[in-house]
Amino acid sequence: MASTTDSKIILITGANKGIGFATARHLGRAGHTVLLGARDPHRGETAAATLVQDGLDARYLHLDVTDPTTVDDAALHIADEFGHLDALINNAAITGDRGRPPSGLPTGVLREIYETNVLGVVTTTNTMLPLLRRAAAGRIANVSSGLGTIAILADPDSPLRDYARLLGYNSSKAALNAITLVYAAELTGTTITVNAVSPGFCATDLNNHTGVLTADEGGAHIAHQIDFSPASPHGVFLSDQGGTYPW
After folding, report:
1. Active site residue 173
2. Tens digits of per-residue pLDDT, 76-88?
């Protein structure tokens, strides 16, 4: 991870397990204060306590991205305790696609996926943006997937081809990529950068643990992509392999 040496305040949504938790651990080990956003208080507090036992500065925040009240309350807490936010990592995501072809996915399930993966990101970003503006160099990182890129979805030879029929997850990540570019356009010329980031194809609950990387490896990739240097990229989809993905 490229960063300055001073500690940053970093909020990660969906951070009580999996890639979000691993990202918090790696950023905490780098000396940053990590705020673990999670909708389940017991799981969130347990996750934060685990990191604290490892000597990291980790705090649980009750935050459900589909509940604007909890997002507002989390922002008030951050403002009261820290006065600003250095980085927002929009990690929380769900899928309801497993075992369902696109034609068999109920629209109600699709709506639930979008509530978290798309609308939840917008809600959280808009609410935290005033705090990010107070930072010397605010960072917004949207955890995306190559399955959200048109280039990969349209490639018949892609190694991810078997997963190209996930209607809810893939289309929500495509929307997230567009959201990333839209916010990047608005914030160009400010001290805030906005990028999509990739953890790689990790074995998590989202894919029934079929990925090739561990959640810890995915978290390490994301932590490395959170760049507080003046040369931080802006408006790109950072690849876990280095460089960028095509949109």
Report:
1. yes
2. 999 999 999 999 9
pTM for the full predicted model:
0.94
Please state whether 244 falls in left (phi above 0), alpha (psi between -120 and 50) or beta.
Answer: beta
CA distances from 85 to 10, 50, 73, 130, 183 (A): 7, 23, 14, 9, 17
Distance, in Å, from the CA atom of 15 to the CA atom of 27, rounded to the nearest integer, reads: 12
- Is residue 8 among the annotated active site residues? no
Token duo for residue 50: 């685990």
DSSP-assigned beta bridge partners for residue 60: 36
- pLDDT for position 160: 78
State the pLDDT at residue 159: 80
Residue range 9-238, CATH number? 3.40.50.720
- Which is catalytic among the residues 17, 60, 163, 169? 169
User: Which member of 8, 60, 163, 173 is catalytic?
Assistant: 173
